[in-house]
């Protein structure tokens, strides 16, 4: 009953497609620090470790938060430069974007960054080998960009093959540990119930059932998931704002209960075991 513990550190307005032009990000008010500190406290309370995937822009603007995570005994990974859709990038654009983000996070924290996650899990299956080869060439040892749940920007990987951590050498010929996010099948469709809005609205009992039934799940949350006064997304429509704000802040107890019930590990801890 393994639960991989991850946290995506990105601006609260970061979306695909973007609601706010990255050129205007510096003018936006930040609300992420409280959410990061809240999650660190939850991890400390349960005695578990977490991998915090930072957007490069965020790490450069708030390097103290990268150091805060490291000083509290956790890991930092790369979550792209400005939360762009990887599926729409050329290989050279992806390489340049990822290298710059990696360098920003390493400069902020002073430690090597070996883990990567694409924004919104936007690794299309048809390009997975190419993208993993680029990550490996940039010094990454761990990727967590694959999900069996179908998404607009990626996902839809074979649940029989990609439902637990594996060495990508077998499937793609690349020596990277892949730590996927399995979907939960509901009426024949898969959902990522252990992250974001789905996690916020899912009952604790169902989450425990799914975690024990599948024996492996990946938790991914964000600072805005804990922000009880989160503003509407600039330019967001009714449904995007509803999805972003539903059940906001009401998940501390749910997180702690899962931590107590499951074997919780960070990406680095999984890598060490492999």
CATH homologous superfamily (4th level) name: Glycoside hydrolase/deacetylase
SSE order: EHEHHEHEHEEHEEEHHEHHEH
What gyration radius follows from the Cα positions, in whole Å? 17 Å
Kindly estimate the percentage of residues that lie in beta strands according to DSSP: 5-15%
Name the overall outline: globular
Q: What CATH architecture would you give?
A: Alpha-Beta Barrel
How many structural domains are formed by the residues? 1
Largest sheet: 5 strands, parallel
Question: What is the strand tally?
Answer: 11
CATH class descriptor name: Alpha Beta
Give the helix proportion (percent range). 25-40%
Alpha-beta classification: alpha/beta
The oligomeric state of the chains shown is single chain
Poorly predicted spans: none
Q: Tell me the distance between the termini.
A: 17 Å
- With helices defined by DSSP (H or I, 4 residues minimum), what is the helix count? 11
CATH domain topology: TIM Barrel
Describe the structure.
The chain is 39% helix and 14% strand. By secondary structure, it is α/β, with parallel strands linked by helices. The protein has a single domain, classed as Glycoside hydrolase/deacetylase (TIM Barrel), CATH 3.20.20. A hairpin with a 2-residue loop joins strand 8 (184-186) and strand 9. Helix 3 (63-71) packs across helix 4 (91-109) and helix 4 crosses helix 5 (128-137). It is globular, with a radius of gyration of 17 Å. The model has no long low-confidence stretch (mean pLDDT 92).
